[in-house]
Amino acid sequence: MSEELTKKAVMEALIFSAKSGIEPSRIASIIGIKLSQVMLLLEELEKEYEGHEHGVMIKSVNGKPVSYTHLRAHETVL
Predict the structure, then answer these.
(1) Distance (Å, whole) CA 62 – CA 28
(2) What are phi and psi of 32, to 5 degrees?
(3) pLDDT-derived band of residue 5, with 50, 70 and 90 as boundaries?
(4) Fewer CB within 10 Å: C terminus or N terminus of the chain?
(5) DSSP 3-state assignment of 61?
(6) pLDDT digits over 8-52, tens only?
């Protein structure tokens, strides 16, 4: 893992690169943190991406975080 990136930033990159989502346990294994820490960081990321300044969002689907085009930007992008 790159020393320049925070664990949260690496988690964000994993979510955005996984087209069908990624298991939180896999994130924990890759980053080297506890599953409970992953869940806290995931909650933070989901809240951050709810803001009006973002064109994407992160939502959990079947227990896996997945990135999507934000509903506000959906018509513009498609």
Answers:
(1) 17
(2) 85, 40
(3) confident
(4) C
(5) strand
(6) 999 999 999 998 999 999 999 999 999 999 999 999 999 998 877
Q: Residue 33 has which token pair?
A: 């943190």
**In which element (H, E) is residue 35 found?**
helix 35-49
Rounded Cα distance between 78 and 64, Å, is: 24
Q: Which two tokens stand for residue 40?
A: 């806290």
- Answer yes or no: are the C-beta atoms of 48 and 11 closer than 8 Å: no
Query: Cα separations (Å) of 14 from 60, 66, 77?
Result: 14, 10, 22
The reported pTM is 0.82
d(CA 59, CA 8): 16
Helix 24-31 vs helix 35-49: crossing angle, to nearest 10 = 110
DSSP state, 51?
Answer: S
